[in-house]
Amino acid sequence: MNGRVGILRFVVIALVAVVLGRLFYIQVIDRRYKVFADNNVLRYEVLFPPRGEVYDRNGEFLVQNREANDLITIPIDVKAFDTTQMCEILGVSRELFVREYRKAVQFSRRRPSVIFKQLPKEMKIKLDERHFPGFYTQYRTIRSYPRKVGGNLLGDVGEANERNIERDSYYKSGDYIGTSGVEQAYEKDLRGVKGVKVQMVDVLGIVKGSYGDGVYDTLASPGLGITCTIDAKLQLLAEELLTGKVGSVVMIEPSTGEILVMASSPTYDPDELVGRERGNNYMKLLRNPRRPLYNRAVMSSYPPGSTFKLVNALIGLQEGTLTAQTTYGCAMGYHVGNFKVGCHSHVSPLDLTGAIQTSCNAYFCNVYRNSLDNRKYGGVKSGFDVWRDYVVSLGFGRKLDSDFIGELNGNVPTRDYYDRVYRGSWNSLTTVSLAIGQGEMGATPLQMANFIATIANRGYYYIPHVVKAIQGRDSIEARFYEKHHAKIESQYFEIVADAMYRAVNVSGTGGGARIDGWDVCGKTGTAQNPHGRDHSVFAAFAPYRNPQVAISVYIENGGFGATIAVPIARLLLEQYLTGAVADPALVEHYKNLPIAYPRYDRQFTQQ
Q: What does the DSSP 8-state code read for residue 330?
């Protein structure tokens, strides 16, 4: 009997020990159950930081923040409520509300889900006044654009997708992220650091106070403010002058590489991609055949046309196959047997300065072929490789490494390309269209503006960039302060710059860009186009000595360079150099000047 009692006593003691051990493990060692309990009484509210605001070079707001609120639900906390009243406050149909609420239930009954986003402050106040159990609002900020300019330049903010979340643990579902332009390029500076607020709630989901008197809370750190290199007034004028046109304007300060204007047309009001209609507006812009979301300044590879003759002049001068006094005749074009590159009527023969002033095709066909056929290379293909190296050193055929995401290479064909196309059998005449910036040659407006800045600096450039300063930092990236030298000596740039001065101020195709007292230097271009009228091109810098600005204007289907690209450039140069446009009527004239775009309009009709 005593043995049985002992066994029973041992069993009881063992059971008690197991229970006590389990309780100790649950309460002291394993924290999961405390977390589960806390989750029933605590609400962890993420505090989203306001994004850094963006200013132009003069301190004027380009991008600001304004208050918005997300409506969040925790389905398990939802009690009976007036659905009609909720829908009236939100301004949505009952069907839409039910659909969004069911999505939240399917996601999780216990975890918070956003069901309506970016509600204005007025809606938040009404929701908070009536208090719907299981629903609460969360403070956010969204973007606003006082100037309503630079849509493609500034970019927009959208929801982080699965790829963003996988790449960076900072982001969770429903977070916002820069998706293009400056917003994307400087996302880590602009986004700030999230905080958290821990609140106690009762069984009805009503907040009873801060947990632990806020000791576990962390504050959100706002994003850093950014000062852009852009001049807001100048950007606005450029976008006005591009109204109804397809094309681009880029203006650069040669002494720094700072981008003063980056305008692409058609553009859009950046406020259209903010708020509850963002998705609908985005799809409308995406379906527009003129592609307003496409930044032509850095993404369009255009034939540079006659502006590229300046490149061939520099190469010829450097290689010694050309001097300023070299003359060639022109009989309405360049003729070799049955082959012809046409030209317009002008005085003949011409020296280099005269050829640039009149934009003679025949002259530069001779210059190009002499560069490739130079005997010291031992063959045209080796000569082509040397020619291409010069072109690339001038900023073509590659990204310029700017701080603008989406920048493309343009195109400078290679020897291998021609070997494939012509099965190894080709010569300088085969590729002579490159002499006048046609054929396979492609350049972005940014590359062309950078090239003109290189001429203005007489042989070097700074990497073009759109951010001037970041809040709390002494400087931007070091690479933007480094000089990049072309493979051509400075004295040859001086010869070309002088010819550009004469093309505007003495006699030549760029006369329409003349501004008294400012010594504008420029070169027109008329780029052939298989889809209608030729493209109108003009590139310039000013003044001749101590240049302050370089500009590239490209208008699709605009016709001759002097027709529309030159006057647009002149008005922008006048505004920047003198502080005002002398004749505002000219702005209205070119703003309303109609241009037909058969290719785009045909696509629109088909849609």
A: -
HEC string for 164-221? HHHHCCCCCCCCEEECCHHHHHCHHHHCCECEEEEEEECCCCCEEEEHHHHCCCECCE
Least Cα distance to 463 among 521, 409, 404 occurs for 404
Q: How many Cβ atoms sit within 10 Å of the Cβ of residue 584?
A: 10
| DSSP bridge pairs for 549 | 542
Question: Who's near 313: CB < 8 A, 6+ residues apart?
Answer: 322, 352, 355, 356, 364, 367, 495, 496, 499
Q: Is the pLDDT of residue 61 over 80?
A: yes
Architecture of the domain delimited by 43-228: Alpha-Beta Complex (3.90)
Residues 6+ apart with CB under 8 A from 266: 242, 245, 246, 288, 290, 291, 292
- CATH superfamily, domain 232-281+291-606, is DD-peptidase/beta-lactamase superfamily (3.40.710.10)
Average pLDDT, the chain: 89
- What SS3 state is found at 563? coil
Residue 28 tokens, joined = 């002291």
pLDDT one-digit tens code per residue, 423-465: 999 999 999 999 999 999 999 999 999 999 999 999 999 999 9
Domain boundaries, the chain: 43-228, 232-281+291-606
Query: How far is residue 381's CA from residue 369's CA, in Å, rounded to a whole number?
Result: 12
Confidence of residue 203 (pLDDT cuts 50, 70, 90): low
Burial of 103 (0-12, 13-18, 19+ CB in 10 A): exposed
Q: What residues are paired with 197 via a beta bridge? A: 45
| Amino acid 279: pLDDT | 84
pLDDT in tens, 250-301: 999 999 999 999 999 999 999 888 887 888 888 998 988 889 999 999 999 9
